[in-house]
Amino acid sequence: MPSLFATIAKPFRRFRRNRGGSAAVEFALVAPIFFALLFAIIESAMVFFASQLLETVTQDSARLIMTGQAQLSSMTQAQFKTNLCSRITMMFDCVGGISIDVQAYSSFANLNIADPINAGKNFVPPNNFNAGNAGDIVVVRVFYQWPLFVTGMGYDLSNLSGGKRLLTATAAFQNEPF
């Protein structure tokens, strides 16, 4: 008759040799970290892509001011925003999400660009639209509050309260003669 120890040890030896569920257990341990990293990479890529798209659209729309087309047609801030929004066909909620700041200066030494994020991490949109005259220095800034989703998993790209990232695109130039 087998001893009590042998009787108890036999199932443990069988359990130790059985590798049937080890892959599932290992996957359960590694999967959350893998998927969190995967989603963080995807979100970083989306923020980068959206930022580059906003930068391109800002540069293209700023040419209307630089060449004098906006001034000669007496373009308003709403018309400039409509033109800018017509260039963004995806990824942005242009109607309520885009904020535009256009300021003209007499020289580069007079530039005064305030940070649109206050101490409470809230976005305070500047509401200026001065396209300037020929030869003026103009700074066009476009802002968009990009929603983030992966911030709850410890990867935080937000610079605004509420888990959003303020995307900013800037074009600075001297108006051409018109």
Number of domains: 1
**Total number of beta strands:** 3
- Cα-atom radius of gyration: 28 Å
User: Structural class given helices, strands, pairing?
Assistant: alpha+beta
Helix proportion range: 40-55%
Mean pLDDT: 89
Strand neighbour order, sheet with most strands: 1-2-3
Q: What ranges have pLDDT less than 50 throughout 5 or more consecutive residues?
A: none
Order of helices and strands: HHHHHEEE
Tell me the distance between the termini: 107 Å
What does this structure look like?
The longest helix has 45 residues, at 22-66. The protein is built from five helices and three strands; from the N terminus they run H-H-H-H-H-E-E-E. The chain has helices at 4-17, 22-66, 69-72, 77-87, 94-97, and strands at 98-105, 137-147, 164-174. By secondary structure, it is an alpha+beta fold. It has one domain. 17% of the residues are buried. The N and C termini lie far apart (107 Å). Helix 2 crosses helix 4. The protein is rod-shaped and about 105 Å long. Helix content is 44%, strand content 17%.
